[in-house]
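Collaborator request, handled under Task 6.
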Amino acid sequence: MLGLTRSRRRLTTALAAFGLLTAAAAAQVTVVATPAHAATTHRILFDDGHAEEAGNADWIISTSKPDPLGEDSSPSSETDWTGALSSWGVALQKTGSYSLKTATSALTYGGSSSTDLSNFDTLVLPEPNTLFTTAEKTAIMTFVKNGGGLFMISDHTGADRNNDGEDAVEILNDLMTNNSVDSTDPFGFSIDSLNISSDHPSAISDSTNPVLHGSFGTVTKSLIANGTTATLKPSDNSAVKGLLYRTGYSGDTGAFFLTSTFGSGRVAFWGDSSPIDDGTGQSGNTLYDGWNDTSATNAALALNATAWLAGDGSSSGGGGGGSGTCTAAQLLGNNGFESGNTTWSASSGVITNSSSESARTGSYYAWLDGYGTATTDTLSQSVTIPSGCTTAALSFYLHVDTAETSTSTAYDTLKVQVLNSSGTVLGTLATYSNLNAASGYTQRSFSLASYAGQTVTLKFTGTEGSTLQTSFVIDDTALNVS
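Structure tokens returned to the collaborator:
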């Protein structure tokens, strides 16, 4: 597209059709990650603020909230704490390596509450039965992106225990697909709308997986007593991995238990709440003892997964949210721009699907400048690089075309910079100009390992002179850490 002069009218129609014109501002919130855990104390928060006790559900570790130690400071058996999840809680407490709390109000991240997510390594969502608010979804997703562990436990479709029109399948799918941080299938799976009456899903063969073969035992089977499964989408997130499958299923369908990563955090999903039910709880509830069911190994699965989410375990099967650990992951949201004007903060019209330039892959790309008039366009995204990562490779594909004819003077420039949360430039990675014009895309790569442990903003700034256009076209960005 050499010599093209770009119209000042930006292509907003296609973006508006997706309802994306104002989403970038809401999504672009820089939050400094709180170090996950010190020594061997893993901090676990169980949610009880979303009708987890509605109907026959009793998904709590103790009736003493937020601190279960208020009921019994040194529990030796699951009946020392009251709740259908008390076996889970007591088993963790008895190791001496876990600090457990229960949240009963709105979930927050970066606030002053004692149950603010910044104070924890892992959040457990045991079959929530009310929708998370917009603010809560932002808090949860940011928590995971910045290194937290998220344990999502569903039930079968139609398990609307409080009769508000929403069940856990819908609520957890809404969390993943309707949030301001990343709604582009960030975890790489969706929960199936199913009610499977019974089954004993089997574990895959993977002797190195810390969830299946962890310090709490070996996992062979789980159980379904009216539950559901998930469909994996590895093309959206290559880290997603099914660990236990419904009988007759494998690969991308019928996953009953799975793990994934997002940003520098870890994710686990379980398709039924029956396996975590220990059969005891508050008076009046009809409970089912899946925890101790001898036909399955549910206790080992729950406990190993909790340890893995909090940062324990080898790198196989996932990553770590803990200080000094690193999940192998790609950290940038909407990295190919295919969700339009989300996640990135950009000048009007920069993220576009205009046919006047071409995306390297897909339909959308970022187009800075190209007007032939004095113009400054920007494109930026904040990201937390985990402190334990020794490799942090930023890459993107760049195409430059220009109407400038000089072979020696840089009239129009594109700067690639790293900024801190206050907007101060920490470093300029590169400056490109009309002198870099060429046909097609060229991949550019830089190491950001020196910024490990920091929340930084990656910023592209295109500055164009008053005559003769230069277009800086970017696609397929990535920030891979390991």
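The cover message to the collaborator said: "Residues 8-40, 313-324 have pLDDT under 50 and may be disordered. Residues 134-145 form the longest helix (12 residues). Please let us know whether this matches your experimental observations."
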